[in-house]
Amino acid sequence: MITEKEQKFLLELARNAIIRYPGNVDIDENKIPKKLKEKKGIFVTLNLNDELRGCIGNLLPSDSIYKSVIENAVNAAYNDYRFTEVTKKEIDSLKIEISILTEPVKLNFIDSNNLLKKLDKKEGVILKKGQKMATFLPQVWEQINDKEEFLEHLCMKAGLNGDSWKNGDIEIDTYRVEKFGE
Predict the structure, then answer these.
(1) What is the pLDDT of residue 177?
(2) Residue 146 pLDDT more than 90?
(3) Which of 12, 46, 67, 179 could pair with 54 in a Cys bridge, judged by C-beta atoms 3.0 to 4.6 Å apart?
(4) What is the pLDDT of residues 78-102, one digit of tens each?
(5) Which of the four pLDDT bands, split at 50, 70 and 90, describes residue 108?
(6) What is the pTM assigned to this prediction?
(7) Is 147 a residue whose pLDDT tops 90?
(8) Average pLDDT over the chain, rounded to whole?
(9) How many CB atoms lie within 10 A of CB 45?
(10) Is residue 122's pLDDT more than 90?
(11) Above pLDDT 90, what percent of the chain?
(12) Which domains are delineated in the chain?
């Protein structure tokens, strides 16, 4: 678990990275708490007026928590292909949310009905078929509460037909998150 002080530090770090882009954030590595140097999967979500404005992350640990927060905050603000770049006017109104992920775990299921029974709305879901893949953070369950609809949207996000999850030739991994935000 990340302490409240560490959460505040990471949220400020994310905001400073967005503000200073394309410049770098000055960090004294000696002042970084040991826990934030651990490698974890990280997502940074940006909302503006309660609407998604950007969300970028890495499912698997690729760098330390604090470095991943910097990189993903900048990418969510300026490189999320679904949105135009965040403007200077928008920065102060952005609400930042950070999700720290557990390692994904394969979800074994027999068929589509069994999959529906095994899905837990507290977990994020990774759907894979061949080279195509997509994920929804657990927070997406708040907007798409129906399991079938959730999987349909996840398939479409992966570039598949909405009913591809029913065919049985998909892989599902799940993960949990520790999320906090402004």
Answers:
(1) 97
(2) yes
(3) 46
(4) 999 999 999 999 999 999 999 999 9
(5) very high
(6) 0.91
(7) yes
(8) 96
(9) 22
(10) yes
(11) 92
(12) 4-101 (3.30.700.20), 105-177 (3.30.1490.150)
Of 36, 53, 37, the residue nearest 45 (C-alpha): 53
CA angle (103 as vertex; 39, 74 as ends), nearest 5: 50
Tracing tokens 């990280």 back to the chain, one arrives at 42
Do 29 and 4 contact (CB within 8 A), yes or no?
no
Tokens describing residue 80: 């999320």
Question: How many residues does this entry show for the chain?
Answer: 182
Specify whether the CB–CB gap between 48 and 97 falls below 8 A: no
Three-state DSSP string of the chain: CCCHHHHHHHHHHHHHHHHHCCCCCCCCHHHCCHHHHCECEEEEEEEECCEEEEEEEECCCCCEHHHHHHHHHHHHHHCCCCCCCCCHHHHCCCEEEEEEECCCEECCCCCHHHHHHHCCCCCEEEEEECCEEEEECHHHHHCCCCHHHHHHHHHHHCCCCCCHHHHCCCEEEEECEEEEEC
From CA 133, how far away is CA 151, in angstroms rounded?
12
**Residues 78-108 as b or e (16 or more Cβ within 10 Å = b):** bebeebeebeeebeeebebbbbbbeebeebe
